[in-house]
Automatic annotation (TrEMBL):
Pfam families: CCP_MauG. The keyword Oxidoreductase applies. It comes from Noviherbaspirillum sedimenti. Residues 50-161, 238-391 form the Cytochrome c domain. InterPro entries: Cyt_c-like_dom, Cyt_c-like_dom_sf, Cytochrome_c_Peroxidase/MauG, Di-haem_cyt_c_peroxidsae, MauG/Cytc_peroxidase. GO terms for cellular component: periplasmic space. This is Cytochrome-c peroxidase. Binds 2 heme groups per subunit. One of its GO terms (molecular function) is cytochrome-c peroxidase activity. Its cofactor is heme.
Length: 410
């Protein structure tokens, strides 16, 4: 397999109509070029099989919600690319943004549409206490862990705290009664409960790291082109190939949707209309302060990282005009299988998406980075056809069960 940037000496000047430079660009999109996700120093348990098995079990447990009807899998449905197909996330209430898929999320330095979390384990905690998502509280969750998962939890993280003398519900960010109960607890008890909560997130993250994308038709085609395998050149239709050519050429899609996951992992304002024009979502602009103040960030007391290892947080860019209404570039793998689109499901189809980017309307807040692109009706359809070649399986990387002695030293 040709790797991006490798010498093309000895190859024909063109293969299936692609120049050497274009083949190098195509190769950079291959899933085989995806490097291993960076080690998350803030989670000492991320590669522990026992933690992944625990995380998988609690991922589907509806007891981790205020009404006993919502689990992580309610929105991140395996049958729907680990999202839910809804414009807005639906938990105990209705959220304000679309559910993002969690497949290959371990490659992202910041999570959620606005990047308000800086690790996969910290990301998993947000929805649990969000009133529109799981709507629960961390003391109640600790009780569920103790009642139903104590043996597995303690084999990984050590002894659970004594909860018998504590109230039924308490949370630092819940409704007034829960906040009052939380503040009335000794600081040591609050710390113990938050530690259990953080460890839940680390188990979730260990499981989510096992979810990765499998090979698509684009990957097989690119490998064939780069390897000179003529039998592979028919994997894509002429229409799909033309869509690919527009994607990496005049459409400039690859500017942001690049690399094996087809995302630069950054945040951009692309003029997507807000759901509420009077109160536009400020996206990244409003999230930077949140991630810096998050008690579960890389620099927090529940992180397993040394401060100097928290590079993304230590060197985070300040909020300014470029971050207003800027949202995460979503990866495009399996994109044709998971409508609707954009951060709040504003666009129902890929045709609407392509037309939006070609038209490049002014942003309701901040400044859109887009510039108009002239695409014919046929070219729009060609790009849509190409996006369908990115569909492939979701691969669950199985991890053998390992018992208590696998607990990492800290």
């Amino acid at each position: 397999m040709l790797i991006a940037g490798a010498t093309l000496a000895g190859m024909p000047d063109r293969i299936d109509g692609w120049t050497r430079d274009e083949i190098s660009v195509l190769s950079s999109l291959s899933l085989k070029q995806l490097p291993p996700a960076r080690k998350d120093s803030s989670n000492a348990y991320e590669n522990l099989p026992a933690a992944a098995h625990l995380g998988q079990r609690i991922f589907s447990d509806r007891r981790f919600s205020s009404n006993g009807a919502v689990s992580c899998a309610s929105c991140h449905q395996p049958a729907k690319q680990f999202q839910d197909g809804e414009p807005l996330g639906l938990g105990v209430g209705t959220g304000s943004r679309r559910t993002m898929p969690v497949v290959a999320a371990d490659h992202s330095p910041f999570l959620f549409w606005n990047g308000r979390k800086d690790s996969l384990w910290s990301q998993a905690l947000g929805p649990l206490e969000d009133p529109a998502e799981h709507g629960g509280n961390r003391l109640a969750y600790a009780r569920v862990m103790q009642a139903h998962y104590r043996k597995d939890y303690e084999a990984i993280f050590g002894a659970m705290p004594n909860l018998g003398h504590l109230p039924k519900d308490a949370s630092p960010i819940g409704p007034p009664l829960q906040k009052s109960a939380w503040n009335a607890m000794p600081e040591s008890a609050r710390h113990d409960i938050s530690r259990v909560f953080a460890n839940m997130g680390k188990a979730f993250a260990a499981y989510q790291k096992t979810l990765q994308y499998g090979e698509s038709r684009l990957d097989r085609y690119v490998e064939g082109v780069a390897g000179g395998d003529k039998s592979s050149l028919q994997i894509l239709s002429p229409q799909e190939k033309n869509g690919l050519r527009i994607f990496i050429g005049k459409g400039s899609c690859i500017t942001c949707h690049n690399g094996p996951l087809l995302t630069d992992q950054h945040f951009h304002n692309t003029g997507i209309p807000p759901r509420r024009i009077t109160t536009p979502d400020l996206g990244r602009f409003a999230a930077i302060e949140k991630v810096l103040k998050d008690e579960f960030n890389c620099l927090g007391r529940y992180s397993d990282a040394r401060p100097e290892l928290c590079e993304e947080l230590n060197f985070i860019a300040a909020a300014d005009h470029t971050t207003q209404a800027a949202f995460k570039t979503p990866g495009l793998r399996n994109v044709a299988l998971r409508p609707p689109y954009m951060h709040a499901g504003q666009l129902a189809s890929l045709e609407e998406v392509v037309r939006h980017y070609a038209h490049a309307p002014e942003a309701a807040a901040g400044h859109s980075e887009l510039k108009p692109i002239k695409l014919s009706v046929q070219e729009v359809q060609d790009v849509i056809a190409f996006l369908g070649t990115l569909s492939g399986p979701v691969v669950h990387r199985q991890m053998p069960y390992v018992a208590a002695q696998s607990r990492p030293d800290k």
